[in-house]
Amino acid sequence: FPSHDIAAISGVNINTIEQGKFIGNEEETAKIKNAVEEVKKYPIYYRSVAGKSFDEILSIMRRWLLQEVKDECLIIYDYFKLMDSSQLKEMQEYQAMGFQISQLHDFCVKYNVPVLAFVQLNRDGIDEESTGVASGSDRILMFCSSFSIFKPKSDEEIAEDTVKGGNRKLIPIICRNGGGLDYGDYINLHFEGDFSSIVELKTKKEIMLENKNNIDEGFDNEINYDDSDIPFADEN
């Protein structure tokens, strides 16, 4: 089983799991065994596609859908990149990426299946938060139903949002099936890399309103933040 799944469920450090350091520790061993049994209940299928062409990847998806899936499903593709450099002999990288995205869109329509896909941000994504920060962004925006940016928060944002705001943010840029968020607003997340854990928290706007209400009530100098909803927070 993937160590990050076991870490997220058990609360045992992922390095401890991967290096086998839990052996001899009865408490951690018990947690890991329970996590393994929990993962067995989930109908998850994982396949590494490293080094395969995108046509091969689509074939793997197709065979899985037709041979294994009995009910509704979700395909998670991590992530869009060029697997075969020979494609660059015939077209530019952004063109090859756009072709992949077009193929995946056609696949989704044909088989009526949702896909959650990821793409790396380009260098502009360090500071900017717009539709232009993703490689092949024109094609992505043309075919996706929702496009969001996941990134670390700056020190200033962490201070402004307080401990209740976590250390990561999810910024919905395009939302075709919903109201989305106001400009400048984002979803706060708390990320614990040691435990492969991401927890959704309140939005920036909700935290600002909460802080304002506390100040209006005269508790601005003695605000007690409860981090009990942030897993493993007491261990860091």
Fold and architecture overview:
By secondary structure, the chain is α+β, with helices and mostly antiparallel strands. The chain is built from 8 helices and 6 strands. It has helices at 3-10, 14-18, 26-40, 54-67, 93-111, 137-143, 155-161, 204-216, and strands spanning 75-80, 115-119, 146-152, 168-175, 187-192, 197-203. A 4-stranded antiparallel sheet has the order 3-4-5-6. Strands 1-2 form a two-stranded parallel sheet. Helix 1 (3-10) crosses helix 3 (26-40) and helix 5 packs parallel to helix 6. The two termini are 26 Å apart.
Layout of helices and strands, plus pairs?
Blueprint: H1 3-10, H2 14-18, H3 26-40, H4 54-67, E1 75-80, H5 93-111, E2 115-119, H6 137-143, E3 146-152, H7 155-161, E4 168-175, E5 187-192, E6 197-203, H8 204-216
Parallel strand pairs: 1-2
Antiparallel strand pairs: 3-4, 4-5, 5-6
Briefly say what this structure is.
The protein has 236 residues and is an alpha+beta fold. Helices cover 37% and strands 17% of the residues.
The mean pLDDT is 83
Q: Give the CA-CA distance, first to last residue.
A: 26 Å
Strand content: 15-25%
- Classification by helices and strands: alpha+beta
Order of helices and strands: HHHHEHEHEHEEEH
Oligomer: single chain
- Number of helical segments with 4 or more residues: 8
Give the biggest beta sheet: 4 strands, antiparallel
Backbone CA Rg: 21 Å
Number of strands: 6
Q: Which strand order spans the largest sheet, edge to edge or round the barrel?
A: 3-4-5-6
Overall spatial form: globular
Q: Give the proportion of residues in helices.
A: 25-40%
Point out poorly predicted stretches.
221-225
